[in-house]
From TrEMBL:
Family: Belongs to the glycosyltransferase 20 family.
CDD domains given in the database record: GT20_TPS
Residue ranges of domain Channel forming colicins in the record: 337-348
Species in which this protein is naturally found: Streptomyces termitum
The protein's name in its UniProt record: Trehalose-6-phosphate synthase
SUPFAM superfamilies associated with the record: UDP-Glycosyltransferase/glycogen phosphorylase
A biological-process GO annotation: trehalose biosynthetic process
Record-level GO cellular component terms: cytosol; membrane
Molecular function GO labels: alpha,alpha-trehalose-phosphate synthase (UDP-forming) activity; pore-forming activity; trehalose-phosphatase activity
Lineage, uppermost ranks: Bacteria, Bacillati, Actinomycetota, Actinomycetes, Kitasatosporales
Xref: InterPro entries: Channel_colicin_C, Glyco_trans_20
């Protein structure tokens, strides 16, 4: 029995099964990992799902990291809940991603998947109920587990239950597409919590709007904003390890120098999962327009795009990844020369390369159509060595904190984005340095440990 519990779909560790039957563990990073490290590990537990065969095998063999409990949920139920509902319905709603002429479809297949989503949430609620000490604090994460607060409250009314949403929250208008009973169940699930956290006021207000004029349970749930930031010391230490130094040297070589002048070429850096909401394609279109309308930048700039595959079980994500690679290829074909490749795309989940790219970034491009926070926009200014100009879309949650010192773009306005890239590349070095300093200060205002402890304290405080 422990007094602090965290629940999320993806846990802090994952296992892969080798051909020889051996399991190897891979530890992940991220805000929640640093956040939870702020509490006594003997008295805390992280409940997460076994995501693949390696994880499931680890559960079967009884292998577990201290302080982590993986739930081995039936693979079909899991796939329907994770791919079928969380990533194909809830993610699409919260990010307003549907291509309306064809989607969404709420049919019998949806209803079956929704059953699985319930079962998957129930598995978490039951595990948490079994592990939590009297009056323990439970911090449930994200849209995968929206029903857990309600279910857990029924099982254990003594617990303090918090939920944090890392994505945007859908607008009330957009949510009207979903069947009424499903919306009701979703909101009731969330409102089982004592406390709901969001990254921005905007998402919190959307949640409250969605609850308006509905017949919902009469109990008190506090809705609050904790804008997750980055830990500057930790990030800079990671970015200055020897493998990153080596990668940086190689990247500098790849970027090279302008043939005519011998000047070091500038870099426009972006790092994302190949995620439909990240707007990578319009970013590439803007870069193409920049090269087209501002020929003075040809041979003087390189676009370093890390777009590592994500959720490849979903056809729309596979197609998106392929389109990103294709468009980057077209740009290279159209503008490249024997010694200048305009776009360098990496489709590997290569954190070392990303950190090296952060360090040399002259310009950072972060242009999501809609994003809960977007930590890349916060990480690059902290790590960049010579100061970087940030081109940031209004769709990113981070825009609320960073907008004043970024070059703001509408995510759909490709021409404006091209112009902003030009302004960013042309920004005088002292101005860039000044802005970067202010961006880094805003980005580190609420580092992960504090973000976590503040939520915990609020949850344990008077109701
Ligand atoms: C977003 C979500 C997280 C999720 C991450 C990666 O940031 O808010 O909950 O873990 O994307 O997505 P994945 O489906 O690979 O876990």
């Amino acid at each position: 029995m422990v007094s602090v519990l965290v629940a999320s779909n993806r846990g802090p560790v994952s296992y892969t099964l080798g051909d020889d039957g051996a399991l190897s563990a891979r530890r992940g990073g991220g805000g929640l990992v640093s956040g939870l490290s702020a509490v006594d590990s003997e008295d805390s537990l992280w409940v997460c799902a076994a995501l693949g065969d390696g994880d499931r095998e680890a559960v079967r063999r009884g292998i577990a990291e201290p302080g982590v409990r993986m739930l081995d949920i039936d693979p079909e139920v899991y796939a329907d809940a994770y791919n079928g509902i969380a990533n194909s319905v809830l993610w699409f709603l919260h990010h307003h991603l549907y291509a309306i002429p064809r989607e969404p479809v709420f049919d019998a297949a949806f209803r079956r998947r929704w059953e699985s989503y319930r079962a998957y949430n129930r598995a978490f609620a039951e595990a948490l109920a079994a592990e939590a000490a009297d009056g323990a604090a439970v911090l449930v994460q994200d849209y995968h587990l929206a029903l857990v607060p309600g279910m857990l409250r029924e099982l254990r009314p003594d617990l303090r239950i918090g939920h944090f949403t890392h994505t945007p929250w859908v607008s009330a208008d957009y949510l009207r597409m979903a069947p009424d009973d499903v919306v009701d169940e979703l909101l009731r699930g969330m409102l089982g919590a004592d406390q709901l956290g969001f990254h921005t006021e905007e998402w919190a207000e959307h949640f409250l709007d969605c609850c308006e004029d509905r017949d919902l349970p009469q109990r008190r749930t506090r809705v609050r904003v904790w804008a997750l930031g980055v830990d500057a010391d930790e990030l800079r230490a990671l970015a200055h390890r020897p493998p990153v130094d080596d990668r940086l040297a190689r990247l500098r070589d790849e970027i090279g120098e302008t043939a005519a002048t011998g000047e070091r070429r500038r870099s426009i850096v972006r790092v994302d999962r190949t995620e439909l909401s990240k707007n990578i394609l319009r970013g590439l279109l803007a870069y193409r327009e920049l090269l087209d309308t501002r020929p003075e930048w040809r041979d003087r700039v390189v676009h370093l795009a890390s777009a590592y595959p994500s959720r490849q079980d979903l056809e729309s994500y596979r197609a998106y990844t392929a389109s990103v690679i294709e468009l980057a290829g077209e740009i290279n074909e159209a503008y490249g020369t024997p010694d200048w490749q305009p776009v360098l795309v990496s489709v590997e989940d290569d954190f070392v390369r990303s950190l090296a790219a952060y360090r040399l970034a002259d310009v950072a491009l972060v242009n999501p159509v809609r994003d809960g926070m977007n930590l890349v926009a916060k990480e690059i200014p902290v790590v960049s060595e010579e100061g970087c100009a940030l081109v940031l879309s209004t769709g990113a949650g981070a825009h609320h904190e960073l907008g004043a010192d970024a070059l703001t773009v509408d995510p759909f306005d490709v021409s404006r984005t091209a112009e902003a890239l030009h302004e960013a590349l042309s920004m005088p070095a002292p101005e860039r340095a000044e802005r970067t300093k202010r961006l880094a200060a805003a980005a580190t205002a609420l580092p992960p440990q504090q973000w976590f402890l503040d939520q915990l304290e609020a949850l344990r405080g008077p109701a």
